[in-house]
Every structure is written in structure tokens, then in C-alpha cells.
Amino acid sequence: MPGLDEVLHYLTGIWLLIRHQQDGFRWLDLSWRGLRRSFWAFVWCLPALAVIWASWRLYFLGNMPEGTTAGPGFFAKMLAIDIIGWLFPLVLIAALAGPLGYARHLTTIVTASNWMAVPLAYLTAVPFAVTLIAPSAGAFAGLLLYAVFGASIILQYRIVWMCTAKQGLLAAAITALFVMPPLLVGQSLQKFFGTLPVAL
């Protein structure tokens, strides 16, 4: 598992790519080994995900009948949902790489996007942390979450644009694959696993 110094090294590259600086690629390990190691990014996201799960648990219990419980099994289900939500778009992007002609960029796209997920996870956790600290600030947290969601799409696009040699339409299509399938599949999985309040 990459240590903190190594992760910060990669995140420096991500920051440079967001700023459209080509030097950012030199900070990433774009080898096959680097691609495999980039999936450790999910582990580095776990503290942020735990905040999100804890906030969602409170929301879930607050909108369910009295006596409803949400113990360790609830968190295990949330973990499964997030793992599937992480991998599903990558499978789609890999499957379409040949037909859409970006196979040569695939390793770069996946590696950079995996590491990009780390700051995005902590950014996304902020609105959920607000609801844990100040439950009455739900409206503000909701607006903040929409802002974070919009910002994350822009940042993801900027990364993919650099990884696809600045092909705008292709970057937009791949960014949509990163965004839309997890939303659709995630909601379906929430219903399947019973982690969505019955009112929804």
C-alpha cells in the first residue's frame, strides 16, 4: 500500500494536471504497476467515506419507522455499494476504450482518476460532516453538496481532458461515464440493500 509521502507525490501530479500543466504526468506512475497500485486510492478514501456513511446512517434512521436499526451490516452494505460504484464506470470505460479509440490513453485515465478520487472523496465528505456536527444545518449542507458535486465534475473533466491529449468531446464522454453510472447504479443498489429510507 502506498504511504502518505507517495500519495502526496501523486496528488501533486493531479494538482498540476488540474491546472493543465503537462508536467503533472511526471509525478504519476503510469506503468502497469502504477495502475495496479492506484487502486489503493480507495483505501485512502475510507476515512472520508466513513464520514459519509455515518451521516447517511443518521439520515436513514431519521426517515425510518421507530425501532429501525443500522448496525455493522449497514456499513458493510455501504462499503459494497461504494466499491461497485468505483469499479463499474472503470469497467465501462475499459470496455469502450477500443471502440472509441482511446485505448492508448486508458492506463493514464484510470491511474489519474483513481488518485483524483482521494481529494474528491474528502471534498464530498465536507457537507456530510456538517450534518454530523450541526444536524439543523441540513439545508446548507444540501446546497454545499450540490456545489461540491458540480465542482467535482469540472475537476474530473479537466483531468480526463489532459489524459486524452486534450480531446474535448472524448473527455466529456468519459467524464459522463465517471459520473452518471455510479449515480444510477448506486441508487438501485441502495434500494436492493435496503439502505434507502422507505419514504424515498
Structure notes:
It is a single chain. Helix 6 (138-163) crosses helix 7 (168-193). With 200 residues, the chain is an all-alpha fold. 26% of the residues are buried. It has one domain. The radius of gyration is 18 Å and the shape is globular. 76% of the residues lie in helices and 0% in strands. It has helices spanning 4-18, 32-37, 41-62, 72-100, 106-133, 138-163, 168-193.
Task: Offer a concise description of the structure.
The chain has one domain. Helices cover 76% and strands 0% of the residues.
Strand content: under 5%
The helix/strand order is HHHHHHH
Number of strands: 0
Q: Tell me the domain tally.
A: 1
Count of helices? 7
- Structural class of the secondary structure composition? mainly alpha
Shape: globular
Radius of gyration: 18 Å
Question: How many angstroms separate the termini?
Answer: 38 Å
Largest β sheet strand count, sense and barrel closure: none
Query: Helical residue percent?
Result: over 70%
Q: Could you list the spans in which at least 5 consecutive residues all have pLDDT below 50?
A: none
* Mean residue pLDDT: 94
